[in-house]
C-alpha cells in the first residue's frame, strides 16, 4: 500500500493510518521495474543519461569515461567467468576507495556473483573471521594490503598495474589492469539473474552488536538507484560528486558504485580522507555535491573562515550528511557559515540498503533534528519495545521499516534474521524514534548498543569479549563516550583482578594491537563491579549516566 490522501484512515498531514497504525510515505511513489530477471548492472547500464566522465582519480587525474567504464566491466566479467566465478559465488573486495572499485563491483554483480567488502583498516584476524563466515572464492586487493590476506590460500587479483610474484604466500591469478585490457568475449557464461538474487554481503553490527552478513538483493539496489535518481533529478549528468565516504560501506557503495553510474554524474575519488585534499579536489573539479559524515561536517563548520579564505567553493550546491543525526546547533552553524549551500541529511541502515528517510529541500532541512520524511514507497511503525504496541504520532518507540530496499536477511544466521525481520517483512531497526504530525522522523536514542565513531560502527560486545581475555581483567563493559569531533568513541569500565595495578594506558594498548584503529578504547575507568540485570546483561545505561556525570 502507498500513501493515499483520499483514504479516510490515513491522515494526509502525517501519513499515519489509524486502522493499522502504519505510517506511509508522503513522498511521490517511485515506479520500479517489474521484469523478474533483471540484475542491477543491466538496469544501470541501460539507463539513458548525458554523462561523459564517470570517475576521476583525485591524486593522479586519471579518468574513466562511461564507455571505458562499461567496457572495463565487461572485460573483467569475462575474465572472472574464465577463472570460474559463477552465480552465487562470493568475491571479497579489500581495497581503499579507487576509480576501479566500481568496475569490480559491477563486474561481479553482472555475473550474479556476490560482493563482500572488508574495511582496509581491519586487522588480519578480523578479515579472516569475515572470510570464514562468507567463504569467498576470490579476492581483489591492493599490493599494500596483501599481508592482511597472508595464509588464507585465496586466489587474488591485484588492483594495480604492477605486482610482484616473488612470494609463495599468495596465489595471485591476475591484475585488474590486465583484466581490463582484455577484449570482451561474447562467449562467456551468462546465467539468468533475478531481482531477488543476492547482490552483496556487507557486514554490519546490526541491532545486537555482533557482526553479521547483511544479504541484499538486486531488487534492493534497483530500488536505491531508482529512488535517489528521482530524488535528485540527476539524469542529466550535470553533477560532480566528491567521494570521501568509504566504498566498502553501504553509504559509499550505494552512492558511488551504483547511483552515480545510473545518473551519468562524475565522481572524483579520494583514496583516503584528508580535508585539504578534499577541498582542493572540490575547487579543481568544480564539484557540486558532497556526501559527508557528521564529523567532517563539524570540521567544515569549525574551520569555516580558513576554508573559505583558502578555497573557492562557489560551485558547491549541496552537502549531504548521513551516518548519524545532527543537532540543531550543527545544522544552523553550517547554514550560517555556508549560506549558499543546500544542506540535507538522511537516515539509513545497511539492513535497509541505504533506504529510510531524508530531507529533500532547504525548508525540510531547517526542521532541526529531523532526518526527514520516509522514502517513497517506504512504510514505518513506531513500536513500544516493552508491549509491542504500534504507536501513533509523536509517540516514541522502536522504528520498524518495510519496503523493497529492506534486506533479505542475515547470512547463514536464521536466529538473527528472525529476531530482526518479522514474518510480515518488518525490519526492527533498533533505533528509538518518533514521527511528528507532519510526517517527519526524529531519531532520539538507540536500542542497539552500537558506538558510532566517525560514522563507523563499533560493537561494544566485541571489545568486551577481547578485554576479558586480559589476565588482569576480571570483568569489563564498553560504552559510547560523546565527543564533538568524532561523534562517540569507546570507553571501557574495567574491573581489575585482586592485587592488579593495571593502568589505563596498558588497557588501551592491549586493545589497540588487536583491533582496527576506529575500534580503539580511548578512555578507561576502573570500578569495583559492572552493573548488570538479574539475567546478567550489562546495564550500559547506568554506566553512560555515570560517565555523563563526570563530564
UniProtKB/TrEMBL annotation:
Residues 49-411 form the AMP-dependent synthetase/ligase domain. It comes from the Eukaryota. GO terms for molecular function: ATP binding; CoA-ligase activity. Keywords: ATP-binding, Ligase, Nucleotide-binding. Belongs to the ATP-dependent AMP-binding enzyme family. Residues 462-537 form the AMP-binding enzyme C-terminal domain. This is 4-coumarate--CoA ligase. It holds the Pfam family AMP-binding_C. GO terms for cellular component: peroxisome.
